[in-house]
Amino acid sequence: MEGQTRTDDIVRVPANGRERFYDSRGYGRPAGDALDLAPVEAAHLLYRGDLDSVDGQGFREYLSAVGGLAVRFFVYKDLRDRGFYCSPTREGWSDAVDPDDTADFLVYPRGKGPWDEVVEHRVHVVGERTTVAASQLDGGVLAVVDEESEITYLDTSRAPVDGATEHEPPTGVAATLLGDRVVAWEPPESLYEQGFYGQPLDRDDDAIQLSLVEAAYLAERGALDVQADDRDDGHAAVLARGREAEGDRFDRRLAVYTTLRDRGVVPKTGFKFGADFRTYAEVESVENLGHSELLVRVLPAGHAFAPRDLALDVRLAHGVRKEMMFALVDGAGDGADSPSIEWLRVQRLTP
Amino acid sequence: MEGQTRTDDIVRVPANGRERFYDSRGYGRPAGDALDLAPVEAAHLLYRGDLDSVDGQGFREYLSAVGGLAVRFFVYKDLRDRGFYCSPTREGWSDAVDPDDTADFLVYPRGKGPWDEVVEHRVHVVGERTTVAASQLDGGVLAVVDEESEITYLDTSRAPVDGATEHEPPTGVAATLLGDRVVAWEPPESLYEQGFYGQPLDRDDDAIQLSLVEAAYLAERGALDVQADDRDDGHAAVLARGREAEGDRFDRRLAVYTTLRDRGVVPKTGFKFGADFRTYAEVESVENLGHSELLVRVLPAGHAFAPRDLALDVRLAHGVRKEMMFALVDGAGDGADSPSIEWLRVQRLTP
Asked: ipTM of the predicted structure?
């Protein structure tokens, strides 16, 4: 059987194409008894020997002739090999396709097909060298084809972050700004033991070292009274030092830190994991601390991910049994008020 | 006992300081019966209560007064807490100090001290926000103090990479350039099975997909005959496509790939680990493949590391039981000849 390309890159397969390829195997979109195929479907049928040619070309020629087809073909084939029916998203081909949807494929649950209108995954295909805007990652699956044509599936979701930690910080604890950190010399024990702010300078010492972001949060609430040589206002001095060290990133991190604390989640540094924070959803005391659940990387809302960096973060989080969460911050910065934060969770997926 | 700052930031402790602090505990440098201390040593003695004051200041005041002292103090204290004697590097204080040495501390083996002239570690101290030039990482230990004042020790070494893989690629295998990858449709089985080049398109198919870097390496050796629509010279077409996709990075990666293959090491993509390559030191056949031993990240020789990125790479490598290796490439690029590569291994260290 042979296909012919029509306008709009649609490959038309003549009468009884519908019966052979759609009704029993979920390819394409019926056009009477004929069938319209997207190029990736045509390539797959050529590869399998079910189609003899498209415009007189065999599989190898056709795959070379259609620009950008190879990467999509690898993913389509992989999903088919795993037993899924899937449809390229094309406006008008399915009621399930939102015109704004950036997905390349709709994947149906195993045993279902395009006639069922139940969608298991929306898959967005990229090569490993293509950056992906954070705004595109909103509940779909990212299929990254690496340079050796192996595929990594990353499941994305917009997920709220909530916790159950209850702790009221003390008030007016004296502290000193020391370079890019703060030390509270004699805070009440609860600051560290229940609040999990900072870390002790020594086992046998009352002094608690705080990060700039912890100190800024506490100082804003009147919990910390920071002495800084050159400033009357300790809170302002901490903010200034933070911005000096990290620029706008400090404001983004502080916005995320504040939101997490306000929701009962305790953020601590994620440095050892290459992240901004690791978080604990419920801290009663440091003595009875469980494992942290999330790794959080703070990014500006307009960030574009390099798939390799994404793979690195997700792989590491998986290896330490945590979930990778990206906090996308819009509008944080010196003088800006109430930035908005979206939470993007990314996990490895084996379809 | 009280100390006084002299010129050059040296804190002089008067007569019998030598006996109390140097002879028995390895602080400072004798000056007759008196003792000269570096500020970090003076701070530690103040912290312990062994010194009452320096220039009339107690520990808290002194730590605030000396710029940049806090971060070095945390590391010095941590090393002392772990049972090591260590000396700040100061020209003329020890025969073991090379004037070009960028280390902050010399750490002696446990039970040894400055009078023994045996050095266990040379420690370079940075805050997590300070970038570190690759050229500074040459055999010493990097102590990174994160924002919450926890310390991560990273051991660096310049290590050669060698393997024992023996495989002569075939000649003149036909292949097609397909976007940013290459497919050899009917190569001899040995290309993949023994050489571990590329990966099969399908279990039941002869076709092998190759990355651009694999294809460039093979094409240069006459092993691959690449067809590209728009070029007579398939090798040049692969190089051009690689540079189009990755710029100079492609040349650096190809230089590293080539050096590894030439040394009997098989590089495969490290995408799933966020690296450039994972490597196998000895491949006899894909059927009997062991685990890969190294993760390799390719960087320009002038690269400066953000400690957090370094922590991420090293942590991930550790988690998957591989070693993290950085290939620092000097002089690769279109038209440049024989780039030089230095191999930098970085591992977590618990002193």
From this structure: 0.92
